[in-house]
Amino acid sequence: MKVTVVKNVLDANERIAAENRRLFDEKKIYVINLMSSPGAGKTSLVEKTIVALKDRYRIAVIEGDIQDTYDADRVAALGIPAVQINTGGACHIDGNMIREALPALDMNKIDLLISENVGNLVCPAEFKIGENAKVMILSTPEGADKPAKYPLMFQESAVMIINKIDLSPYVDFDLEKARRDALTLNRNLKIFEVSCKTGQGLENWVQWLAGQIEAFRNR
Questions:
Q1: Contact 141, 169 (CB under 8 A)
Q2: DSSP bridge partners of 113
Q3: Spatial separation of the C-alpha atoms in residues 132 and 18, rounded to whole Å
Q4: HEC profile for 129-166?
Q5: Rounded distance, CA 157 to CA 146, Å?
Q6: pTM greater than 0.85
Q7: CB neighbours of 146 closer than 8 A, spacing ≥ 6?
């Protein structure tokens, strides 16, 4: 019975996510679902991405947290439309939460929508929201064993961003193991090594994202 219940929940979410996707396609909005464990640097990456691309694209952000508006306030301070989803204990954002948040945004004035998911390496990977791409962050202080421990996250993501690369000399992080294990799970995974603190490698991520937006708009 439990398996049936879980399957029904996921099937319902798939339908709503597909409806979201049709709306995003109609409005030509490229959507990324940004995921990581708590403290990996999601909001910092969002801020750096906004600064790099806001003169080229109209950006909006949906922030997901169990409570508080701290991250949404940081985004709004950059002059970007931001909507806060407080899940009240749920460990992920789902398609219905996104659907409920969209009326707060002007869908005719968005080229790039970033959804920052709740900090968690398990549940967010299972729930589609209508995104073009799942992007996950692995920070060096977390250790290189995360692909082996949380394989679905790496299998479902189109991009893995290894953040806090500037800390590599000071933490026990095996970069080659992280890359090897992640690519074993998903050979098409795009990997970027960055530091949101120093700016190292961010230009490669921004260039890739801009290319995806342009390809989507011109298809």
A1: no
A2: 31, 60
A3: 11
A4: CCCCEEEEEEEHHHCCCHHHHCHHHHHHCCEEEEECHH
A5: 14
A6: yes
A7: 37, 121, 138, 153, 154, 178
Q: Kindly report the backbone phi and psi dihedral angles of residue 139, in degrees, each rounded to the nearest multiple of 5, phi listed first.
A: -95, 145
* Span 125-177, pLDDT tens digits: 999 999 999 999 999 999 999 999 999 999 999 999 999 999 999 999 999 99
Q: For residue 58, what are the contacts with CB-CB under 8 A and spacing of at least 6?
A: 109, 110, 111, 112
56-84 burial by CB neighbour count: b if 16+ within 10 A, else e?
ebbbbbbbbbeeeeebbebbbeeebbbbb
Q: Provide the residue ranges of all domains of the chain, joining segments of one domain with +.
A: 2-218
3-state secondary structure of 191: strand
CATH classification number, 2-218, choose in 3.40.50.2300, 3.60.15.10, 3.40.50.300, 3.30.70.3270: 3.40.50.300
Specify the length of the chain in residues.
219
Q: Which residues of the chain fall short of a pLDDT of 70?
A: 1-9
State the pLDDT at residue 4.
Answer: 55
